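DM from R.C. (forwarded with permission)

"hey, sorry to bug you on a friday — could you get me a structure for this? deadline for the figure draft is monday and I only need the backbone to look sensible"
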Amino acid sequence: MKCLVAVLVCVVLTEGLVKVPLQKHMSVRQALKNRGIRIPYEDPLLKYKHTEFAGSANMYINNYADTTYYGPISIGTPPKSFQVLFDTGSSNLWVDSVYCNTKACNTHKKFNPKQSSTFVAKDQSFYLPYGAGSLYGVFGYDTVNVGGIVIRNQEIGLSTDEPGDNFVVAKFDGILGLAYPSISAGGETPVMDNMMSQNLLNTNLFTFYLSRGGEQGSELSFGGVDSYRYRGQIYWAPVSSESYWQIGIQGFKIGGSETNFCAQGCQAVVDTGTSMLTAPSQILGYIMQAIGAEEDQYGMYMVDCSQVNNLPTLIFVINGVSLPLPPYAYIGQHGDQYCVVNITPTYLPSDDGQPMWILGDVFLREYYSIFDRTNNRVGFAEAI
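My reply, with the result:
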């Protein structure tokens, strides 16, 4: 996700004023000075000042193969840019650092705290496990800029060891977690919570628009809702556990037929950091049978590509509203004849024992999603 803003400065010469010929390679200020016209000096930094107190920010983020949504932030003074995965399924901010020399770190840009005049070290180490990959690191504090919103004294994790190969081919240099502080390693304050406590946002929420088909144009917004990214009504679901962005599911249908699987209640984590739709393991076989998928030698479920349009729509009933997931959303292109089903199993229940889903990118591409910290709720609207 790269956002490029071009600023054009224009001098308007109206009738009655002396028109100043601008010589090649001469600045507007110098040309006017030669004519005896003086422009008061203004600090160039003033053009950036509004961003620190912007109140809201829309930033374009990259879409890598419909599997990873990431974009730039800057850290330190002077600021250094890093690509981070924006993850609603975790709460810590960390980046690769010069303290780490594993293969995963050496293939990415590293933060050097000695090059930042605002960095403050913290004598605390951490370990972070993810669904895929893990890392060790140390904490510190520094200035962080996210989409033009400047956060002072933000806790940052600096990796010291990233074992294995999970992060080696990652398109990002770190992860920015957007979940609740209760699941933050080391009890560190998440980026969103610091935005809130430092009164940097008009409204304490953020939103995602995830592009489809590997195309660019995805968007992450802080402090406001982008009405150009969705159509129709926003449907809200209360957060059931202030840890992940967890909500309740009251029903699950396949092709319009109620399965009764969530009749006693299911839970779901709304997670931008998970590329698939993840279903409870006890219903996965039922879903695959209903859509006629077959398991291949690698454990992937496949369907005949020519039959995709005939597959059933999956419907989630959330807070009394039916949210459909059409077959083109959960089927991915794999080859000329066979297409992969982008649904994987999860084996762990929620804390209260109810079956757990993960509404990952497969689901979120269909719905503009709003994460509201003031009211502790998640909103869904049909994405454009």
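R.C.: lifesaver. The CA atoms of residues 121 and 140 lie 4 Å apart.
me: no worries. Helices lie at 28-34, 46-52, 103-106, 191-197, 281-291, 327-330, 361-364.
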